[in-house]
Amino acid sequence: MAIIAPSLLASNFLRLEEECKMLNKSEADWFHLDVMDGRFVPNISFGMPVIEQIRKTTTKTCDVHLMIEEPERYAEAFKKAGADRLSVHYEACRHLHRNVQQIKSLDMKAGVVLNPHTPVEFLSDIIQDLDLVLIMSVNPGFGGQVFIPHTYQKIRNLRRMIHERGLDGHTLIQIDGGVTVENAGTLIKAGADVLVAGTTVFKSADPIATIKALKNAD
Ligand code: DX5
Ligand code: ZN
């Protein structure tokens, strides 16, 4: 069974507390929180004050996806806001190894995110240090985009790399963007461990049932 991480970017911010309570009741495993700075991606979402409030509503894992430049400037602040896991973009980090060590030293799980154009092979010399690799299956910055099919091949290649290094169960593979109840099974078969879903969950008539359907996909 995959780990399901609904993205609150697609939630109703006017009813944020109720949305969080709904996730608490559901089979969702993690809260996926998308932070955008208007520089690394052409959009701005929310930051620490909102995450602090979300943290108060749940004991589930807060999985923070940073789509920001210079993430090292803010890692500590996100820890303080309540992040359990912090993922930074490969494309935003000049000293990725240092960023990963910083996140771990703050006692968070460290993830690295790859844009659609970035090959999984670029992680070959750091994969052993990662708790998670997030493969973007859309270009980051917006919810509700269409899944890029080439992602399947990237997942298979990354799964092979992780397996060959003996890192199965240690380094998780997460997929983000355009995930639906229809493609969830294929993603899991290709080797995904964690599925992020925004629109699919929050725009559905019955989010709790949709989360259950994602959870049971195979
Ligand atoms: C996009 C974000 C995603 C987004 C996914 O930049 O990283 O987490 O919320 O939205 P959907 O599931 O609607 O594609
Ligand atoms: Zn995300």
Care to describe what's here?
It contains 8 helices and 8 strands. By secondary structure, it is of the alpha/beta class. It has one domain (3-215): Aldolase class I (TIM Barrel, Alpha-Beta Barrel). It has an 8-stranded parallel β-sheet with strand order 1-8-7-6-5-4-3-2. Helix 2 (48-57) packs parallel to helix 3. Zinc ion is lined by residues 7, 32, 34, 65, 176, 196. D-xylitol-5-phosphate binds at residues 7, 9-10, 32, 34, 65, 138, 140-145, 176-179, 196-200.
SSE order, one letter for each helix or strand: EHEHEHEHEEHEHEHH
Straight-line N-to-C gap:
7 Å
- Provide the helix percentage: 25-40%
Number of domains: 1
CATH topology: TIM Barrel
Annotation, overall tally of beta strands = 8
Give the integer mean of the pLDDT values.
98
Looking at the overall shape, the CATH architecture is Alpha-Beta Barrel
Q: What would you give as the CATH superfamily?
A: Aldolase class I
The number of helices is: 8
Largest sheet: 8 strands, parallel
The low-confidence parts are none
List ligands, each type once.
D-xylitol-5-phosphate, zinc ion
Shape: globular
Q: Taking strands numbered 1, 2, ... along the chain, how are they ordered across the largest sheet?
A: 1-8-7-6-5-4-3-2
